[in-house]
Amino acid sequence: MQNRTMEIGVGLFLLAGLLALLLLALRVSGLAPGNNVDTYKVYAHFDNIAGLTVRAKVTMAGVNIGRVTAIDLDRDSYTGRVTMELDSAVDNLPVDSTASILTAGLLGEKYVGISVGGDEELLADGGTIHDTQSSLVLEDLIGKFLLNSVNKDQESQ
User: Fold this and answer.
1) What range does the record give for the signal peptide (predicted)?
2) Is there a contact between 110 and 58 (Cβ–Cβ < 8 Å)?
3) In Å, what is the CA distance from 39 to each residue of 17, 139, 147?
4) Are 14 and 79 part of one and the same domain?
């Protein structure tokens, strides 16, 4: 009887550990039904959104203030339109704020970083950030470097 009780206890302990790992994986991936924080939508148009994904974080001064909820192509301007949901606690963003697509580390995940502007008019729900800086594509940077070094070699001959 004591052996059976121990086996049931170990089984319950393992089940609790697996559930904890599942919950941790869901929270890290951003899929967990989480905080029901009031949000408002803001849009930004970028020339290049390479590597940015839905559910990517939106930060300001290194603090997470929202998430990317949609990425699509604007058929009028042929630019990528990013829809972001920002926490309503950060409802004092000026309309001349800047949105940049940044990389965590050298080859890490892409996220949107917002720099605060100085205008007195504030972004409202459904507002658009017009000043944007697109994603830096490593392949383009390497290609420009190689092309530049080849041009220097040809000029020196």
Assistant:
1) none
2) no
3) 33, 36, 46
4) no
State whether 27 and 43 are in the same domain: no
Q: 110-115 and 98-103 as β-strands: parallel, antiparallel, unpaired? A: antiparallel
Neighbours of 49 (CB within 10 A): 23
Residue 28's Cβ-side half-sphere holds a number of Cα atoms within 13 Å equal to 6
User: HSE on the CB side for 32, CA within 13 Å?
Assistant: 12
Q: Which residue has tokens 């408002």?
A: 40
pLDDT in tens, 10-35: 999 999 999 999 998 887 776 666 55
Domain of residue 6, residue span: 1-33
Whether residue 17 is found in the same domain as residue 47: no
Same domain, 24 and 72: no
Q: Residues 9, 65: one domain?
A: no
Provide the strand spans (E) within 4-89.
39-46, 57-60, 63-74, 79-87
User: Looking at residues 31-60, what average pLDDT do you find?
Assistant: 84
Task: Give percent of the chain above pLDDT 70.
Answer: 90
